[in-house]
Amino acid sequence: MQYGGSSSALSSLREEVWDDTMRRVVRQSKFRHVFGQAVKNDQCYDDIRVSRVTWDSSFCAVNPRFVAIIVDASGGGAFLVLPLHKTGRIDKSYPTVCGHTGPVLDIDWCPHNDQVIASGSEDCTVMVWQIPENGLTLSLTEPVVVLEGHSKRVGIVAWHPTARNVLLSAGCDNAIIIWNVGTGEALINLDDMHVDMIYNVSWNRNGSLICTASKDKKVRVIDPRKQEIVAEKEKTHEGARPMRAIFLADGNIFTTGFSRMSERQLALWNPKNMEEPIALHEMDTSNGVLLPFYDPDTNIIYLCGKGDSSIRYFEITDESPYVHYLNTFSSKEPQRGMGFMPKRGLDVNKCEIARFFKLHERKCEPIIMTVPRKSDLFQDDLYPDTAGPEAALEAEEWFEGKNADPLLISLKHGYIPGKNRDLKVVKKNILDNKPAGNKKSDLISAPKKAADASNPQNDAKLEEILKELKSIKDTISNQDERIAKLEQQMAKIGD
């Protein structure tokens, strides 16, 4: 077969050779025959103007109720939120979430409330939105809370996996901020750990650590509450193109990146000894960033390259070669982005183990990954208990130092989203109130109103006010420290 020197054809040939080489290792695994299938056209979401902004995020977030997609918007930033059943052609006049003044770069559904979504934008803010139970009938312009603290665009938002109302954001100011969304406060600001752009941030299983991949080619493991770097690896991948790093359920770290020769690589690391990788595989010479999607229940990693038309998937085990190639789902159209459904949103009766929402230029196409089984009975080996929608900790408990694993649920009888799953009213929880505006006074007064309604006694009011005062004083103190730091930096530059 002649490929006539075309670089894309050569890349395609290398992909075939790589896939073939990996396939030769025959190994017993219940996931060996997993296959992907795109749904029929009438089950896609059509006529969507997917965002053209140059940013390597997935542009799509999914949960058992809704699919959210970042779209092109004139004069600001917007994203669509569609109920899962709202397939077919989406009218141009369909309402959007459009409160940002600059393009939206990242979105993330709250794991503990399927109606709450966070967004990060070029306008340097993070906004948190409460979506009506049946979806939008009018465009949503007023967020529940605006989180202001970054000095440059915010490209990453990620909810804590087990603590309620804890949200992480990372910006092009190379800072990571961890917020208590229930009070609108920035409680942790990691602004001196990264010297270059942060490509991605991943929480570990219980949310006690984060790992980051950065433009300086380092992967860092950080304890955010102690504000210290626990481990780091220089030149994780030697190529100049963007990397990704994610935590696995056992505490190891999986990375994707590029070699010095611009070949795409994947690697597995033990954060307790990052001198050498546990495994390192070179794949092909495509130049799209590999976005990893991880299922902790099956230990399968799906790799979706931006601009690729395939999804490769691997099983991670504790036997050499540790990262085992399973198969590739291939299609004709390149992907602009990808959403990944949480396990509780899958159809267990059809042995569905993953569902992707592939973004094309003008549509969103669900892709279903299935394990072929003859029996119609519940396959408990495919569906161990999985993370449920209940938070294991309150925000305050986590900030005080407590850790907890996700609270698990069984999928034996399927998962039915609860009807009234608004956040429980806790002191200083503003997500259950009417949307607040940008003003700081709104952020302060909303929690007080919530407390007043739940406990009208005067002593409770006094206690709440005192707490509020202390919180404001702490914030001012933190800002003073930050100003002092910046002034010192300016003085050094002046000298």
Automatic annotation (TrEMBL):
Keywords: Coiled coil, Repeat, WD repeat
WD repeat placement: 97-139, 147-189, 191-232
Gene3D superfamilies in the record: YVTN repeat-like/Quinoprotein amine dehydrogenase
Domain of life per record: Eukaryota
Ranges in coiled-coil conformation: 462-489
Residue stretches spanning the membrane: none
Keyword presence, Oxidoreductase: no
Example GO BP: neural crest cell migration
Record flagged with keyword Coiled coil: yes
InterPro entries (alphabetical): Coronin (IPR015505), DUF1899 (IPR015048), WD40/YVTN_repeat-like_dom_sf (IPR015943), WD40_repeat_CS (IPR019775), WD40_repeat_dom_sf (IPR036322), WD40_rpt (IPR001680)
Region Disordered: start-end pairs: 436-459
Domain DUF1899 per the UniProt entry, residue ranges: 24-88
GO molecular function: actin filament binding
Family per record: Belongs to the WD repeat coronin family.
Annotated protein name in UniProt: Coronin
Lineage: Eukaryota, Metazoa, Chordata, Craniata, Vertebrata
Gene: CORO1C
